[in-house]
Amino acid sequence: MSMWLNLAKTDPARLREARENPELIDALFSDEDDPEQAADLHEEDYRTLAEIAEGRAAAEEDSADWTSAYPWLARATGHGCETVEEYDFGYGPAFLLTPDEVRQVADGLEREGWTRFLELGPYYAEAATEGKGMIGGIS
Q1: How far apart are CA 137 and CA 7, in angstroms?
Q2: Residue 4, CA distances (Å) to 41, 43, 46, 48, 59 in order
Q3: Cα 59 from Cα 107, distance rounded (Å)
C-alpha cells in the first residue's frame, strides 16, 4: 500500500479558512479543473522519503529515528505542526504551516541537505519565496 505526502501552497487567508472550515481542504486538493491550483500542489512518495531519511540517519547520525535526526524534514512532512483534527487525510489529520514557518522549514531543509535528494526542498523554497503557507497530509 502506498502512502503519499500531499502538499498545497496557499495564502494566509486560506489557512485561516481551513482552520474554521476544514471541508475547504477537500476543494483545495481536488480542484483538478483549475490549472493554477494544480501548479501549487505537490505529491511525494512518503514511504520512499522515509526510507531515504532512515538510510541517511543511520549512515550520518548513527540513528534509526529520522524524525529526530532531521527535524526540518520531519516538520516538512507534518510532524510537530498545527493540525486540523476534523480533516483526516487517511494517515492522520491535515497539518498547517504559516508563511513564516514555511520559510523556516525551507531554510532547515537546505541546511539538512534535502534539496539534493528530494523535490520537497525546492517546493518549500518556492513557497517561501512566494510568501505562501502550507496545508498538507499523508494519504
Answers
A1: 7
A2: 12, 6, 5, 9, 25
A3: 23
Amino acid at 129: T
Across the strands, what pairs with 6?
43, 137
Take residue 34 and report the three cell numbers written for it. 483549475
Classified as helix, coil or strand, 1 is: coil
Pull the grid cell for residue 120: 520537497
pLDDT tens digit string along 81-102? 999 999 999 999 999 999 999 9
Does the model's pTM come out above 0.90?
yes
- Other beta carbons within 10 Å of 2: 8
- Cβ-based neighbours of 90, under 8 Å, separated by 6 or more: 137, 138, 139
Beta strands per DSSP E along 1-132: 4-10, 41-45, 82-88, 93-97
Are 135 and 95 in contact, with CB atoms under 8 Å apart? yes
